[in-house]
Amino acid sequence: MFIKAFRVKNNIQVKSSEVKKLKTKLSQQYKLNEDELSILLPSKSSVQSVKATTHGEQQLIIFTVDKRPMFFEFEDRIYPTVYWLWLIPSCVPYFTTHPQVLPKLANGANLMMPGVVKEGSDRKSFGRFQKNQIVAVNLSSNASAVGVGVLALDSEDMYMSAGHGICVKMLHVFGDKLWGMEGSVTQQIPVSKPAVRQPNLNSEQDFPELGSVPSNSQPQEQNDDDSSSEDDSESQQSEGNQALNPDDILKSMFMSALKINKKELLSLLPIQVGTFYPTYVLKQKHPNGDKSVSIKETSYKKVSTFIKQMTDEGFIVVKEENKGVEKIISINYEHPELVTHIPFKVKSEDAKSEQSCHMLLTKMTELYVVNESTKKIFNALGVKDGNALDSTEIKNYVKDYVSRKKLLDPITKQALLDDVLVEICLGKRENEDPVRMSLDEIIANVNSKMDNTFEMRSQSGPLIRGGKKPIIQITIATRMGNKKVTLISNLEAYGINIAEFSKACKIGVQASTSITKTPGSNTNQFQIQGNQVRFVYSLLTETYKIAKGNISGLEFAKKDKTKKK
């Protein structure tokens, strides 16, 4: 439901009288006591009601507590978020799955029956649940909730399904747009004990841990287990000792790029080989390799040689439009090797998981909006008015436009401007003489004619988009007793984890910190004791990699004292 961005219609402060009604409704649906309600809705907290529409045009209301999405109301039912379940975990039943399944759920998949870890395989192991009952999902390695959904079947139908079909229809999962609704208060999954429901002897064969070899574990069968584990370890060791063939790895990366990006690639055809290889192939990884391989490590040595081989094997069709400019014009997705190939995506998911723990949750990317002045060139390439593109995308689209129109002189590397490019680059043609420009000049002119915006990008995609670039403001104020304090505003606009930022400041300057409301605004203001401008500036630019132009206030830093001679 929240894998893709949702649209916010309004955001309203909930009155205290409405909060009381909300508590009554929560108490009736989830049997919460007063203590639990106080944890969920503290007396001095700020409760907001956010009306939203999902990507699938579903209408709902999200309730945030101190900016953190705590629950949402959809079709007259209230559903908890993972933030709620991390505070009060016992209000809904849990279904346990393997850790390897979480990336699939985060990509929009439902929890399937084969991925459920059960206690036993008889009727009792499926409990007594009703269809559409609200449940949470956790991992066998961690009891903390990672998602919320409704049951697709009742317990009897689960038992009769023989381990096939959907178990939980996922509505919300850790890492989705609801979890990242407010970048400054996002929280990672709390580390907890392993989930209670673990595979036992009766269910391991039906539901083995994904990616592992099933084995028995009862004490009376210890000898069999030992021999089985020895065989497994020997086979794994022999596989690990086999030297990886760089040619095979590169081919695997090539096929993974085709399968993972199928929809996108088909929409881009014809696509230049020079764009396809670095953008799609080099980003792939091989399941047995720690990283992707360089073309120099293979027997091909050149990208053109490798692409020719893939063409000869029937994966793609390549056409040379100009000398040295090759384009993929067709992809054979019916190729037997491509059909049976399983792309390896776990490494990239692992990388996302590592990034999610980084102090900087988002990164600001400059974007350019297709407008009236530039729509002719982009419309011709299938890009609609109002679409926001980054500088790399613009560069690729301009190159593609010039190539399609056959405007580039291969000798001078100058492009002959057609009427569309003349209008963008020159405004009006003064005479009928042909005008030539380099690609860099054309790209610069196109960029200058487009409207500016920005996007806060995270490991899971875009979070915040707006028209004005935010500036982090650092100022100095005087408090009681002529004590100086450093004030920092607008950190939240960059998705900075305030708790981590505060910890870094405490360790770095050994000073107390606090958070207050910015006067005349709903945003928070971070305060550090003393004049710490220089330290904060260095922390933001060096650790958080925020551009210096996006920070103001360095002039308030302490002046270096010079000793008199």
TrEMBL record:
Name of the protein in question: CLUMA_CG014019, isoform A
Region: Disordered, residue numbers: 194-246
Compositionally biased region (Acidic residues): 222-234
Gene3D superfamilies named in the record: 3.10.400.20, SUI1-like domain (3.30.780.10)
Superkingdom assignment: Eukaryota
Keywords from the named record: Cytoplasm
Pfam family, one: WHD_eIF2D
Gene Ontology BP, a term: formation of translation preinitiation complex
GO MF entries: RNA binding; translation initiation factor activity
Transmembrane segments: none
This protein's record includes keyword Ion transport: no
Domain SUI1, residue spans: 472-544
Keyword Cytoplasm: yes
